[in-house]
Amino acid sequence: MYRYDEFDQQLVNERVEQFRGQVARRLAGELSEDEFKMSRLMNGVYLQLHSYMLRIAIPYGTLSSRQMRKLADISRKYDKGYGHFTTRQNLQLNWPALKDIPDLLAELASVEMHCIQTSGNCIRNTTSDHHAGACPGEIEDPRVICEVIRQWSTFHPEFSFLPRKFKIAVSATEHDRAAIRVHDIGIQILKNAAGEIGYEVWAGGGLGRTPIIGKKVGDFVPREDLLAFLESVLRVYNMFGRRDNLYKSRIKILVHEVGVDEIRRQVAAEFKEVKARGTLQLPEEEVDRIRKYFASPAFEALSDDVPEIDAAAARDKGFADWLKSNISAHKQPGYTIVNVSLKPVGLTPGDCSADQMDAVADIADKYAFSEIRVAHEQNLCLAHVRRKDLYEVYSALKAAGLGTPNIGLITDQIACPGLDYCNLANARSIVIAQRLSERFQDIELQQKIGRLHLNTSGCINACGHHHVGHIGILGVDKKGVEYYQVTIGGAADETAAVGDIVGPAFTEGEIVDAIDTIVKIYLDLRQGDEIFIETYRRVGVQPFKDKLYAAH
Amino acid sequence: MAQHSRKGAQFQAVTANRLLDGIVVYLTKNNDWSESLQDAEVAEGKEQADALLARGVLFFEPENLVLDVYLFEVEKTDAGIRASSVREIIRQAGPTVRKDLGKQAELDGVHA
């Protein structure tokens, strides 16, 4: 894992003290809310329905067990004993008091954490593949370049007041687990025939009220030029992005309005100038220095063949179910990736209690090189676990209420906080996700349905990624009453697509049955081993429309 | 200023979030702020509502005690004052989830 150097630590410590002074002045009435708002947002502090909310950055979703324990401590000490992992691999606390936040930030700084780049119109925390450094077929660990981007983008003076927030995601495998095509910039790491590493750069993707899949603006940017290229894209956006209309201010609107060819031309012109200056040329020795922090742990020479695991699966059905869905292939023989579900039936997707955070930290210390990942699907992940330890890991997770065997299945839902917490929401999303997980809780049924991404957002801002769910649910408000609109056919991976609206919205009382009907239609129509999205792509939206609205 | 009421609303109250901790509060008859909706002063008609809001806004500036001060529609029922919208019911009684803690655990009968 990356460790702060003296500059990183000083920067974060100074930021805490700066914010402490700002909070004191705000509480004393020396700063108005208008004057203070920008400062608090730049430190991850929002005002939500019930309280302030603090968004803590987890750069590229990687945490040490020590950091996880600190998150547990602060959620007990300053909050109500739980936190919420988000689709941007961050952690949100729902109930901190403004007066306590400087002390909370000081505690975070003691474990090299902060809330910088979690809000405001800046380059936000860069996200990545939660299987980074562990999965087979990876070109290189994407966190190396994420860390480079973090250092370049933190407090970047030119990009601290962009037209709107700006999100970057990086993937280094053919299968995209970081949803790069729905980010302001998505970076796909590639290797050419000569064995050189380069970066395919996508720009102008995004969800929200205008969902758009990103367009390719860079085909194979050499490593030494990546920052210069990113700077060029940001400069074009900073110059020409709309500042007159909040709803048109993201780079996706600019790319859409002027066209990808013109954006490519403008970026190329800017790139020529940035490159001529030479200051943003990325030195290989600096990349090497950072790469060392992400070196693989000391793996043992082990075999994938572990008969005692097969025997345990044969006698413990819960373990067998968990092995089917929660384990992913590892690059090292004898090791595996353990995906930890934060989607127990009937509870809040992404929520994790302080005790669970401590439990995961303990398990990571004992079995996973003290490292934890956060997945953008609002789950956790232990990237390097010996296969022979799987039963012990499963048992420990299960004892902590973290053994739900549903990764990638219909109950592994993304849901934003919605109207239960969020000041922007129009409708609740958590309760809908809870009722759906109760409806589909039968594990045999879930396995029969197969991989299906069911995502719910409580408003058009789409924090619940509903547009790119295989099935998406959008909560809307009609005269103070919640309704739910359904989309199908979305995807967030390398086949990224925005879902199609099936028809008129459903009431809160109807929505679970409507989703049940959609699933039944799919099960009737599917051929062979098709998963939902494959059936949908073959048959289109019409059969779903016909039966769904005939049934209601 | 946020708009969370509707034109023609008969009864309205004023709410805000407390500056110090962000907690939801309601403007009372005593010109104070209470965490309980049942303590809220209810204005009838537009004129009373505008006057109530004007009083509440003073606690944002210059008093610096609350922020996001606004009017919202309420109903007077046998069981007391009830917010009309789902949003304001949730602000009053906490999230409709995690009913094991917070005010959602303490306030009976608000969330169905």
Q: Write down the overall geometry of chain B.
A: globular
Sheet/helix structural class of chain A: alpha+beta
Shape of chain A: globular
Q: Give the helix tally of chain B.
A: 3
Low-confidence stretches of chain A: none
The radius of gyration of chain A is 23 Å
Radius of gyration of chain B: 13 Å
Summed over residues and divided by their number, the pLDDT of chain A gives a mean of 97
Distance between the termini of chain A: 53 Å
Please provide the count of β strands of chain B: 6
Short account of what is shown:
By secondary structure, chain A is of the alpha+beta class. Chain A is 38% helix and 18% strand. In chain B, strands 1, 2, 3, 4, 5 and 6 form a six-stranded antiparallel β-sheet that branches.
Structural commentary:
The complex is a heterodimer of chains A (552) and B (112). The longest helix of chain A has 22 residues, at 6-27. Chain A is globular, with a radius of gyration of 23 Å. Chain A starts with 5 loop residues before the first helix and ends with a helix. With 552 residues, chain A is α+β, with helices and mostly antiparallel strands. In chain A, helix 16 crosses helix 17. The model of chain A has no long low-confidence stretch (mean pLDDT 97). Chain A is built from 18 helices and 21 strands. Chain B has 112 residues and is α+β, with helices and mostly antiparallel strands. Helices cover 22% and strands 29% of the residues of chain B. Chain B has three helices and six strands; from the N terminus they run E-E-E-E-H-E-E-H-H. Chain B has helices at residues 45-57, 86-93, 103-106, and strands spanning 11-18, 24-27, 33-34, 43-44, 66-77, 80-83. In chain B, strands 1, 2, 3, 4, 5 and 6 form a six-stranded antiparallel beta sheet that branches. The A-B interface holds A 26-27, 29, 32-33, 47-52, 80-82, 95, 97-99, 348, 351, 419-421, 427-428, 430-431, 434, 477, 480-482 and B 17, 19-24, 60-62, 64, 67-68, 84-87, 90-91, 94-98, 101-102.
